């Protein structure tokens, strides 16, 4: 059970809600703040005070005063008019994350919504009713207006949802489950959509996948080291302590653990004096990606507990301030960094693939083919990896350096953070396939070595990997192997591959 209080949600808890469908409840103590905040909004409306978004229009029309009897129309008009998302929907997991994060933000008690609105979000979350939310259309300030409007539509019984594997009009699902649509009142529409929960939700999903991948990348690279009789000396602790980066030191330590009882690795000068960078510099490159992931994790854990709507209500309504917490710049930067760091994981992996298949760079059969010339073997697998790497270079162009004014120049600087988050997630899908290609090629290269000499842990990876992609005896449609391996990397918990002692050392 996860208890939302607006302040203490962690990425691990979010993962449990998204992947394990752990039930969510609302903190009673935090709900008291929500009630007081709502009372402040109702007082503002009754007294006719001029407060942005409560008794005025929005954006450039903030100087238009709204009568209190028109407050419900103001809010529903906002939601309908701002539901301008386009393109294919976000994955259900991202939609689910958006509901969770929006509810958590509202539980902070700065937004002025009724408790029933937050309760409805959690009811839909627990019943696995997920809004259909188009991916494109957000500038990342004033928050994720278009995506969150599609989320808000569902609360009033409009729009569409994913339920039990089908895309269905919200009204039909509500009738089936006995759920009544809400009528939004003063400030509630604005409080639902003025926030960064689309970019942050996509960021959290991308981050969870990235953390799995970088762990897996070290294990896969270890198989490549063995297949190429790589030099273990380069991972000596003294080398990495001499530079001082904790993440680099940790990667080198884990590589030593993966390979500690291998008879296929070599020592410096035994076969070669030194390896190519894609082997020798694994701790330096992978370690730098870990540094970036640590930064991104820190920003996401702040943002998932942040009040990001506008205006915010303080001191029981005595202080209501229009600010800019909806601006997504911190997450925009973090998502661009995430995409760049993960793209590099594919860059160095593709170079290892080249060393596995190029007969000029190893002592293995050309392209790992059993019948070179008659059969092409893994030749085009390297092409596919190179294509994915090239695509990542385009996707890794920072979205955060762009800004286009909106709302008649009232909103004259925006973050494009949602674009950055979407691109980071796309990059991660490509990285997974490049790593799947490396794993495939490394396993096939090991067919030409004495597999009894493999390290205990790499042998475990090899054995499990072979269940997804059998030994290549003749050319076949390798696309199927790569997709199956990529799906395995996405869905398989590598904790289950190793003993508890091994897990503690490398995961």
From TrEMBL:
Alphabetized Gene3D superfamilies for the sequence: Fumarase/aspartase (Central domain), Fumarase/aspartase (N-terminal domain)
Query: Which PROSITE patterns would you find in this protein's record?
Result: PAL_HISTIDASE (PS00488)
Major localization listed first in the record, in broad terms: cytoplasm
Locations listed in the record: Cytoplasm
Which Gene Ontology cellular component terms are annotated? cytoplasm
Where are residues bearing 2,3-didehydroalanine (Ser) located in the sequence? 142
Pfam families assigned: Lyase_aromatic (PF00221)
The parts of the chain that form a coiled coil are: none
> Could you give a single Gene Ontology term from the biological process aspect?
L-histidine catabolic process to glutamate and formamide
EC code: 4.3.1.3
Keyword Plastid found: no
Instruction: For the cross-link 5-imidazolinone (Ala-Gly), list the residue numbers.
Output: 141-143
What pathway is this protein a component of? Amino-acid degradation; L-histidine degradation into L-glutamate; N-formimidoyl-L-glutamate from L-histidine: step 1/3
The protein's PTM annotation reads: Contains an active site 4-methylidene-imidazol-5-one (MIO), which is formed autocatalytically by cyclization and dehydration of residues Ala-Ser-Gly.
Q: Which UniProt keywords apply?
A: Cytoplasm, Histidine metabolism, Lyase
Molecular function via GO: histidine ammonia-lyase activity
SUPFAM superfamilies in the cross-refs:
L-aspartase-like
- List the catalytic activities from the record: L-histidine = trans-urocanate + NH4(+)
- Family membership: Belongs to the PAL/histidase family.
Protein name (Swiss-Prot/TrEMBL): Histidine ammonia-lyase
Q: Source species, please?
A: Scopulibacillus darangshiensis
Question: Per UniProt, what is the name of the gene that codes for the protein in this document?
Answer: hutH
């Amino acid at each position: 059970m996860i208890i939302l209080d607006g302040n203490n949600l962690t990425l691990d808890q979010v993962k449990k809600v998204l992947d394990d469908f752990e039930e969510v409840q609302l903190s009673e103590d935090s709900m008291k703040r929500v009630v007081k905040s709502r009372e402040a909004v109702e007082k503002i409306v009754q007294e006719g005070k001029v407060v942005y978004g409560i008794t005025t229009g929005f954006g450039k029309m903030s100087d238009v005063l709204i009568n209190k009897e028109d407050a419900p129309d103001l809010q529903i008009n906002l939601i309908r008019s701002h539901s301008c998302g386009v393109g294919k929907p976000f994955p259900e997991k991202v939609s689910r994350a958006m509901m969770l994060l929006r509810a958590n933000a509202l539980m902070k008690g700065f937004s002025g919504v009724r408790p029933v609105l937050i309760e409805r979000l959690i009811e839909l979350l627990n019943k696995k009713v997920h809004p259909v939310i188009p991916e494109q259309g957000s500038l990342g300030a004033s928050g994720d207006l278009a995506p969150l409007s599609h989320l808000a539509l569902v609360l009033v019984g409009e729009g569409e949802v994913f339920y039990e594997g089908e895309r269905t009009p919200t009204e039909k699902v509500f009738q089936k489950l006995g759920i009544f649509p809400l009528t939004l009142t003063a400030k509630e529409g604005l409080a639902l959509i003025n926030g960064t929960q689309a970019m942050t939700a996509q960021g959290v999903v991308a981050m969870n996948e990235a953390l799995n991948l970088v762990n897996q990348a070290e294990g896969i690279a270890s198989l490549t080291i063995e297949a190429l009789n790589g030099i273990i000396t380069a991972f000596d602790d003294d080398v990495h302590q001499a530079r001082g980066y904790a993440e680099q030191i940790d990667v080198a330590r884990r590589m030593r653990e993966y390979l500690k009882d291998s008879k296929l690795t070599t020592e410096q000068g035994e076969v070669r004096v030194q390896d190519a960078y894609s082997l020798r510099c694994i701790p330096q490159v992978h370690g730098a990606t870990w540094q970036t992931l640590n930064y991104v994790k820190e920003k996401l854990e702040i943002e998932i507990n942040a009040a990001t709507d506008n205006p915010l209500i303080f001191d029981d309504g005595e202080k209501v301030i229009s600010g800019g917490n909806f601006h997504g710049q911190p997450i925009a930067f973090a998502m661009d960094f995430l995409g760049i760091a993960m793209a590099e994981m594919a860059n160095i992996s593709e170079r290892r693939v080249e060393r596995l298949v190029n007969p000029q760079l190893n002592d293995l059969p050309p392209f790992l083919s059993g019948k070179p010339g008659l059969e092409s073997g893994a030749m085009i697998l390297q092409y596919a990896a190179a294509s994915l790497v090239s695509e990542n270079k385009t996707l890794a162009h920072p979205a955060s350096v762009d800004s286009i004014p909106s709302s008649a120049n009232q909103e004259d600087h925006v973050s494009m953070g949602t674009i950055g988050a979407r691109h980071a997630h796309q990059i991660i899908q490509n990285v997974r396939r490049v790593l799947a290609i490396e794993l495939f090629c490394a396993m096939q290269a090991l067919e030409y070595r004495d597999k009894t000499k493999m390290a205990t842990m790499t042998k475990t990876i090899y054995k499990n990997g072979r269940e997804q992609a059998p030994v290549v005896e003749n050319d076949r449609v390798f696309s199927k192997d790569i997709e199956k391996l990529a799906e395995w990397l996405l869905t398989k918990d590598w904790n289950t591959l190793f003993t508890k002692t091994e897990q503690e050392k490398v995961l």
